[in-house]
Design a protein that fits this description.
Layout lengths: L2 H23 L2 H19 L7 H26 L1
């Protein structure tokens, strides 16, 4: 297994663990963080066929996920 593949698997496991901890604690902010990390990883991999460096794809993927998570946390705050 390539080092990059192993790193991606570890990242997914950590994000999934954060999501599960958020569910167990019934904490929407932690749940959104875990989901956002998984979303960022998904976008990073979706952009792989387009080319470009992993750093550029990471910035785009995790940046978009960060914006979504922050917006969702604000919505949860005002809705709850």
């Amino acid at each position: 297994m390539a080092a990059y593949t192993a790193l991606q698997l570890v990242e997914v496991l950590v994000a999934a663990a954060i999501l599960v901890i958020g569910v167990l604690l019934d904490n929407s902010a932690i749940m959104l963080l875990g989901g956002g990390l998984l979303l960022g990883k998904a976008v990073l991999n979706i952009l792989a066929p387009e080319g470009g460096s992993v750093y550029r794809r990471s910035l785009i993927g995790y940046g978009a996920a960060g914006i979504l998570v922050i917006g969702a946390i604000v919505l949860v705050h005002f809705a709850g």
